[in-house]
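ASSEMBLY PREDICTION REQUEST
Request ID: AP-0331
Submitted by: J.K., bench scientist
Number of chains: four
Total residues: 420
Priority: normal
Notes: Please return the full assembly, not individual chains.
Input sequences:
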Amino acid sequence: MTSRKKKEALDTSTEEKIKVAARTVFHQKGFAATRTRDIAEEAGINLALLNYYFRSKEKLFKLIMLETVAGFMGGMTIVFNDPDTPLEEKVALLVDRYIDTAIAEPEIPLFIMSELRNNPHEFLEKLPIGKMLMHSAFIRQYQEAVAEGRIVEPNPLHFIMNVIGLVIFPFIGRPILQNVGSLNNQEFEQLMQQRKKLIPVWIQAIMKAG
Amino acid sequence: MTSRKKKEALDTSTEEKIKVAARTVFHQKGFAATRTRDIAEEAGINLALLNYYFRSKEKLFKLIMLETVAGFMGGMTIVFNDPDTPLEEKVALLVDRYIDTAIAEPEIPLFIMSELRNNPHEFLEKLPIGKMLMHSAFIRQYQEAVAEGRIVEPNPLHFIMNVIGLVIFPFIGRPILQNVGSLNNQEFEQLMQQRKKLIPVWIQAIMKAG
DNA sequence: GTCTATAGGGGGATAGAC
DNA sequence: GTCTATCCCCCTATAGAC
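STATUS: Completed
Returned structure:
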């Protein structure tokens, strides 16, 4: 068993190589613009192998899409669900975490939004983020804060939109932003790092201004 | 000349019909997923006519893309550039205007961001939004406000990201938002209408909290 | 200008050898 | 399991009649 583990660690399995390549290419170009030949080349294997392992382009895509959405949104719901961290801390955690992951894989937010436009039900139905979120500890905490007058706006959806929007939108509008501000990649990343500290402060201000 | 005008008003020219159809389909599906047959059908004409008027799918797309980006971003720079409206009023104008246009054509924000990912230079170079914006009356007003202590955060890029993000992100994340909040289209639109009044207030709060 | 018919190429998928 | 070669459909673009 040691040797098997070693082997997979040193040189990952073909199936895994294809999945990694598929993630990369799909995330960059989206489903429609991706050719299975691109994925095969990226993986350093032959086109036939892709169909041998995953049957079809569509099957492979659905796999990658589900994993990507689950990975990205899943972390979010975990943070929202924890009853022990107060609202303010939740925001700081979310902002910090999502700016880091978005810096690491900047194509993911736009990828998810673009591909979700085509068949939203297909993927959202399989992932109960909606119900999970609206029945989470976050919602209770939010309602308490409204009742205690610490938050003015009673609808938590506005709050969610604001937090996620402030964090993620710069990554979606990145080409425009870099053009407007004449930013290279490093300067862009510095700006995002700044926002880790700024956004929680802004959210605090928004809460009291609803 | 009267008759010619009348004719075009009653029943628009074939060229125009194709362009309108191309806008619709491209905006919904993006370049890669759009088939010229879809456009022809949407326009109620034959496929050959599309090539007769526009030479190729790519030429037609670039035309639509440029018009769309120019139309969407152009209105923004005009508002930013006006030296007579103070900063606070600019925000209110922008928010009001862009929520209305995004409600009217909700696919445009995501369309622009998605297609810009492929070849950002191709389109952004042709539209001097960057230089126009960074040398506009808005920038001067912003710096004044910073100098007078009315705004804490010195970098106007954060301000721009925040305003645009708060306005546009809900339209980009629409499927997720509607899923999370169990919203039908009417409820979604009501939420956006609410934000016309809320966002300017929030921006005021953010200014003083940087 | 508008149509029908078709050429031509690209890309997903498979057959079959190794 | 992995490769080469190839099938075949779909989609863009054009030829040519009207």
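REVIEWER COMMENTS: Chain B touches chain A through 55 residues (CB under 8 Å).
SIGN-OFF: pending second reviewer
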